Amino acid sequence: MRWGDRLPTESELCDQYQVSRTTVRYALQELEREGILERIQGSGTFVKRKELQLLATRSFSEDISAQGKKPSNKVLEAVVVPADSPLAGVLGIPLESPVTKLVRLRYADHEPLIYETSYIPWSLAPGLALNHDEGSLFSLIQSRYQLQIHRSVEKLKPVLADKQAAKLLNIPEGSPCFEVQTITYLTDNTPLEYNYGIFRGGFPELHDRAVLLSVPPCHIETLRGFLRFVSGGLASSKEIICCRLRLLAVGEVAAELV
């Protein structure tokens, strides 16, 4: 299905997924509440929007600690590079301006969870590439450079692990993962960081983000893996069918998901 397409009727969804009308109705209401679907009286239920952005207010370390696990990081690369055109535009800096590039592997209880690359303008945090540690980057920036971090905007989508990500995350190549692009802003809305990361699928820490995931056109196996991941972590048939319908609403290959 594509954006703006009409979903099947409740009866058709009941037959397709072999569930009760109450379960289907619950799932549709949840997706409508999230803004993924919209009901038009007399016409049906339609896909409402293409992409969902999540506003994050906590760092990775805080997220993992909140799960009762121990966060840790390994810095793989720390260099200063010139900002190319796309990066300069995202960070709101002149082309070729120096930016600190940090490539890190992030862990939860010593299990690799995220392979990520961060870009931070040198003008905001000079010397960061030479004077960093393997703790929380945001805590370091706030304490050393007296910068106040205000918000982060995340975009998520399912992807398949390439050779490098698979090796670093200790998973088979082609495993379902999550690509996360994040822009973090200071209190005056100055962009502080652009971050691109690959999350390893199957971790409970990703549950809250995963169920809100927007699914653009992508490989069918990624969607299947996402469905297996979500279904394995949810308790009720209502929530599972809700996730199935979410994929139906925002994926273009949903007919193969059953």
TrEMBL record:
GO terms for biological process: negative regulation of DNA-templated transcription. Pfam families: GntR (PF00392), UTRA (PF07702). One of its GO terms (molecular function) is DNA-binding transcription factor activity. SUPFAM superfamilies: Chorismate lyase-like, Winged helix' DNA-binding domain. It comes from the Bacteria. Residues 1-50 form the HTH gntR-type domain. Keywords: DNA-binding, Transcription, Transcription regulation. This is GntR family transcriptional regulator.
